[in-house]
Every structure is written in C-alpha cells, then in structure tokens.
Design brief:
The protein is an alpha+beta fold. Helix content is about 15%, strand content about 35%. It contains three helices and nine strands, in the order αβαββββββββα. Strands 1, 2, 3, 4, 5, 6, 7, 8 and 9 form a nine-stranded antiparallel beta sheet that branches. β7 and β8 form a beta hairpin. It is globular. The N terminus and C terminus are likely disordered.
C-alpha cells in the first residue's frame, strides 16, 4: 500500500505534458498575424499566402486568385476575412489553434479544419496592392478612420 501511495506521489510530482494544441483568442490571433504573412494549404489542396497588413488589408492570394479588396479582422475568438467589394463580398471566419508553429484554421460554422498554415515574419513575399485602390469599409482590425482605402493609407 505504501508503495502505491509513493508511486502516486511520484507521478503527481512529474511535470505535466504540454497541451498539444492551444486555441487562440482574438487578441492572440491578432498578435500572431498582424504585420506578418500567413501561408498554407487548404484541406482541399489549394495553396494561399496573405500578408496581414496592420491597416487591415489581406494582400496576396487566397488560393484561387489574387486578393482584391480583401480585408481581415479579429473577433473574440476568431479571425474573419472579407473578399471583394461590398456588393459581391464573401466572408470566411475561422477559429485558430496553434500546435508548436503550425496554425490550424477551423470553419466557425461547422468546426471542420479548413487549412493548415505557418506565419512568416513581415512580408517576405512582397505582397502588395499592385497600385490599385483598396477598400475595407471599416472591417479592419485596427481602423484609424471609419473608411479605409489605399489612397488614405498612402497619404499617411
């Protein structure tokens, strides 16, 4: 009996293994993505790479075409992307889990894994807006003004 109690005490004193996956809240997602490039592969095989500009623009491509009027924002426990002009916009929101340095993006609607990604510091792929106006209409993560366009960003 003493041996069993001793073994239980020894096991209880051992360090507990780290959690394999950490679910990030909105602020942690913002800190990880803002000013950095998120690149990865969708579960259906497509590749994406997007620079998360601090002004809210998502520059690069979302796997199927170059981004145009693409913006990102964080909420309480998710990141949301808005693609296209307001009249023809698509919206995709994801929860984000971190496992070591791999980010797992899950659809908020059904909880299924949408993509696996990594974060590269800064904008190493030189994603840009190609000189075109960019409109995020206040859907950005840190909006200094209610309406945002590339021209306003460039004039600062």
């Amino acid at each position: 009996m003493r041996a069993a109690i001793f073994l239980l005490a020894v096991f209880a004193a051992l360090p507990q293994p780290a959690r394999a996956v950490d679910k990030l809240d909105g602020e942690a997602i913002r800190r990880a993505f803002e000013g950095n490039t998120v690149s990865g592969r969708y579960t259906n095989g497509g590749f994406f790479t997007e620079y998360h500009d601090p002004d809210g623009r998502a520059l690069g491509h979302n796997g199927w075409q170059p981004n145009r009027d693409a913006c990102w924002t964080t909420r309480a426990d998710q990141v949301c992307y808005y693609y296209g002009p307001q009249s023809d916009r698509t919206v995709h929101c994801f929860t984000v889990e971190l496992s070591r340095d791999l980010y797992v993006l899950r659809n908020t609607g059904n909880g299924r894994i949408n993509a696996l990604a990594s974060v590269e510091p800064g904008n190493p792929r030189k994603h840009g807006d190609h000189g075109e106006s960019w409109y995020c209409d206040g859907l950005i993560s840190k909006a200094p003004e209610p309406l945002m366009s590339r021209r306003r960003v460039a004039s600062r």
